[in-house]
Amino acid sequence: MGKRHEESRDRFDFEVTGFEGADRQLPTRPHFLYYPRELKVRSYDRGSFADYPPPLRNADNVPGWWLLDGGSIVPVLAMGLEKGDRVLDVCAAPGGKSLAIMLTMLPEKLVCNDAKMSRLGQLKRALSTYIPSDHEIANRVILKRKDATDTRSWDELKCYDKVLADVPCSTDRLSVSQDEANLFSSPNSNLRLSLPQTQTKILVNALRALRVGGSVVYSTCTLSPSQNEAVVENAAAIADERFGIKCVEESLSSLREHLTSSGLFRFSDGCTRGFLVLPFLPSNFGPIMIPSGMAITNTVCLLVNIFLFIICIMQILANFVVLFVWAKHRKLYRNDNLILLVSLAFIDFLYAIEQFPYLIILMAGHKPDNELLDYDAATIIWVGGPSAALMKGGCTITSAIALDRIFALYFPVFYYQQSKKWWSIFCFGLALILAGIDWLICILIVPIQRHPGASNFGGFVNHANRVAFYILIVSTLIGVVPGLLNGFGLFIEIPMLNEISFFVGTCATLSGLSHAFIFAMAHREIRYAIGQDLCGCFVPPSQPSVSTFDNSFATRTNKTSPPGKTDFSRRIDRVIDGQSSTTPLSHSESPPLEDLNR
Fold first, then answer.
1. Binding residues
2. What positions does the entry give for S-adenosyl-L-methionine binding (predicted)?
3. What is the DSSP letter of 540?
4. Highest mean pLDDT among 165-174, 277-286, 287-296, 568-577
């Protein structure tokens, strides 16, 4: 009898070392999210820091809402509440999560527990304010005062379907914003160091309170792994060793995906158990911390937009010149090798034309740094959308040009024997189709409503590019690497990529301008045509110089051939000019050197 009593005492009396779960594996199973239909959660748009007004009261003097940190609603959603559940909130005060649980209208019974009488009184006042005593739902709420850290006296055993263990923690938000009750102060150092042991015992008792097949949601308001993952692992190990409770971790990936898609939450990728909602300044959730990254102010946006406006004008003029000389000169017009280059100039020209009014709207709508940017989403999509889509189409043409050059470099004989006209037309059409689909998706799916945050051409895709992300992947397979960075960063809400994408728009605009100048200067015939038509300079000389190889070759062949180049050299010139010929020219067809030098 004495031996059995000793074993029972050892079962309940234990100290947490912190290494109980070090060598244990916690099995995982999928978790399916069912959002409670009756739970109404409202939030300002991302990026808004406006204060909530005082809640309105109805005829029964019941306030219209409870102000809750955005991260605090996540544990309630993670519980997966079902109709008829018996629920225990182990550390219920001050009552925000308990109230959210009851507002789902699903639990048959909710037991709100807390160890301190003062906190229990605070909890009672909060619940009675929002749940009238004569309401049917008030009969489902029961208040209890029990010490959840006492494993010996804990008698809430195997009687609940769902348990919420929102345990005491270092409360990072308060610790960095106020001195009172700061656990990181010297007088509270012992209390802070004992937190993991307290949390582990609470979680063990929460597991003991469950029926077989029930679930516990463990939550804290801290970023500390010793109070998060370590507590879960140690509590699961202790519950197994001392009480025979087998635990399975439920994957919360579906809940995380839904919350991420809202754009209001930011999660840590380094959390090994469940997920960690990080401080996220644009949503004003979590501890008062500033996330890393570059700060883009309204002034910076204005300066960038002014710079882009200047570049846009230059881009329109430069690409117009290239298109003008190409259409005017028949020799250029009939050159199949120039179709891709001219297609890119045409798309860049349209892109700049579309961007021109959009930049005017952005500059006219500029606001001081202390005010939120706010543009009409309909205007942005209808004016800025085509420009963004054509920018991606230009990247497709650029990729086609790169492939064209690769074939010319590694397979010259085969390449120059083929006509490039249909290949060029196909690439041009594909670029326009991808751009059209991109813009169409934006029009059909993006909600047309006012939305803050659209600040510049590179970053306006807060709305549009997030929706066009999938078609952007298709374009990326053909070469839209800058566009992928832009869309990817804004779609999955990575702040650093968001800020990089701000400057990607600038780089894309500069690249469109550079295309016109590079191709105009790199292609000799276009360069000469521009000089003749616009400047009257750069006129090709009557006897342009040729390479040393050509001069020496002509000298050797002049002994047996008429003046001018041989049939072999003429045939090579024609192949390089895109006019492949398999029959040698007769000497009577020999044109002067200046006509062959293209």
1. 91-97, 114, 147, 166
2. 91-97, 114, 147, 166
3. P
4. 165-174
Is residue 431 in a domain?
yes
Known catalytic residues are 221
Q: Looking at the structure, tell me whether residues 528 and 584 fall in a common domain.
A: no
CATH number at residue 515: 1.20.1070.10
> 584-597: buried (b, 16+ CB within 10 Å) or exposed (e) per residue?
ebeeeebeebeebb
Q: Known binding site for S-adenosyl-L-methionine: residues?
A: 91-97, 114, 147, 166
CA 436 – CA 311 distance, rounded (Å): 24
Q: What is the DSSP letter of 252?
A: -
Q: Is residue 553 part of a domain?
A: no
Q: Is the pTM of this model over 0.90?
A: no
Distance (Å, rounded) from C-alpha 583 to C-alpha 227?
83
69/157 same-domain check: yes
Phi, psi of 402 (to 5 degrees): -60, -45
Amino acid at 72: S
Which range marks the domain in which residue 577 is found?
A: 559-596
Q: How buried is residue 18: exposed, middle or buried, by Cβ count under 10 Å (0-12/13-18/19+)?
A: middle
For residue range 471-506, what is the model confidence (pLDDT) as tens digits?
Answer: 344 444 433 444 444 444 444 444 454 444 444 444
Total number of domains in the chain: 3
- Per the CB < 8 A criterion, the answer to whether 529 and 332 are in contact is yes
The Cβ-side half-sphere exposure at 534, using a 13 Å CA radius, reads 14
